[in-house]
């Protein structure tokens, strides 16, 4: 019961992942926490999240003005600000860093801003623990498949975040620093599925960049399960990667359109975008092992590599979305399984949708 009587800090906890993570933790499935602290810089999102937990028999004032007495506590703060990070970390047992600038175009136009949040924010967490000797048990960094062989600023800064947390284990042996890395989360804010649904609602066209482009797909609950699994089993410096399926962007669009007469418009690949995403690179495959339904990328630093028990490599090549892409029928099945709104689909439909 990893959360029993623990104080858990979720930095950037008002995002799609943070909200599901908090809900699952509060369910008590892995123990009843002493407190969950949600730290972010958006007061409106915090208020919405706070009110979503408001019981109809409890007065609004009790929830807002007794914030620090509640099991779910909200803090206004910025991971970029060292003092904010210190204040939130004090007393925490487990820290989840979900704070990020994650929109690819935004990071391309404002790379220095991406560095401040995605890199310096992680460094602030490490620095706060080191300089103040905070007795934090575990820090887990949330990363992305775009950090693997990155071609855009978002991926580059997330790759640096991973290395900051991995290296932190050496000078802070009392705290375990680990990471998770996963692909596109189904129906999360800013993902392609809400965009397709909105385009369909307006009668189309649905815009697809390149028909053969592939993306890994997992649900928010699968993303949270990845966090839970890494918190339970990951060794210092390891990065956990879920073994999930992928699909072409075209098949996702067709699954959502169904039998409706809505056109698909091909717009071409966007700047800083990959045709296929990679979760484990060919180089990382040489030190990647299987842990249940997950891959664990072992740290490269020799100080963190344990030689007493050598686990066999799980991969002989990179783990790419191109290699696990589902056909249309299986894409439909996957989306329905995760309760994504899918219409009846004509599995024989072809290029007549394109224009």
3D architecture notes:
The chain has 355 residues and is an alpha/beta fold. It has a domain at 1-182: Rossmann fold, CATH 3.40.50.720. The chain contains 11 helices and 17 strands. The strands form 4 sheets. Strands 3-2-1-4-5-6-10-15-14 form a 9-stranded mixed β-sheet, sandwiched between helices. The chain has a 4-stranded mixed β-sheet with strand order 7-9-11-17.
Q: How does the helix and strand content classify structurally?
A: alpha/beta
What value does the average pLDDT take?
A: 89
What is the subunit arrangement here? single chain
Write the CATH homologous superfamily of one domain.
NAD(P)-binding Rossmann-like Domain
Q: What is the number of strand segments?
A: 17
């Amino acid at each position: 019961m990893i959360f029993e009587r623990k104080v858990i800090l979720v930095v950037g906890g008002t995002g799609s992942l943070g909200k599901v993570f908090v809900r699952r933790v509060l369910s008590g499935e892995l123990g009843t926490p002493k407190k969950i602290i949600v730290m972010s810089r958006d007061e409106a999102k915090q208020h919405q999240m706070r009110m979503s937990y408001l019981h109809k028999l409890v007065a609004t004032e009790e929830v807002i003005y007794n914030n620090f007495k509640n099991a779910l506590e909200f803090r206004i703060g910025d991971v970029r600000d060292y003092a904010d990070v210190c204040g939130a970390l004090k007393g925490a047992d487990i820290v989840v860093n979900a704070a990020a600038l994650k929109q690819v175009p935004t990071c391309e136009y404002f790379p220095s801003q991406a560095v401040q949040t995605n890199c310096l924010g992680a460094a602030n967490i490490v620095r706060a623990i080191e300089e103040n000797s905070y007795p934090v048990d575990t820090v887990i960094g949330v990363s992305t498949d775009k950090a693997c062989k990155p071609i855009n600023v978002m991926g580059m800064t997330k790759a640096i975040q991973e290395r900051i947390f991995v290296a932190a284990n050496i000078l802070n042996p009392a705290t375990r620093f680990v990471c998770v890395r996963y692909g596109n989360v189904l129906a999360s804010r800013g993902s392609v599925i809400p965009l397709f649904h909105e385009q369909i609602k307006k009668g189309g066209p649905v815009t697809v960049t390149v028909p053969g482009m592939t993306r890994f797909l997992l649900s928010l609950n699968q993303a949270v399960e990845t966090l839970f699994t890494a918190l339970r089993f990951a060794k210092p410096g390891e990065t956990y990667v879920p073994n999930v399926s992928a699909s072409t962007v075209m098949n996702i669009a067709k699954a959502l359109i169904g039998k409706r007469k809505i056109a698909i418009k091909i717009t071409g690949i966007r700047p800083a975008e990959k045709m296929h995403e990679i979760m484990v690179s060919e180089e990382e495959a040489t030190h990647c092992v299987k842990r249940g339904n997950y891959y664990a990328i072992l740290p490269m630093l020799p100080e963190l590599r344990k030689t007493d028990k050598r686990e066999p490599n799980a991969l002989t090549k990179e783990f790419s979305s191109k290699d696990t892409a589902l056909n249309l029928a299986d894409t439909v099945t996957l989306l329905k399984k995760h309760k994504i709104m899918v219409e009846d689909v004509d599995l024989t439909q072809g290029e007549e949708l394109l224009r």
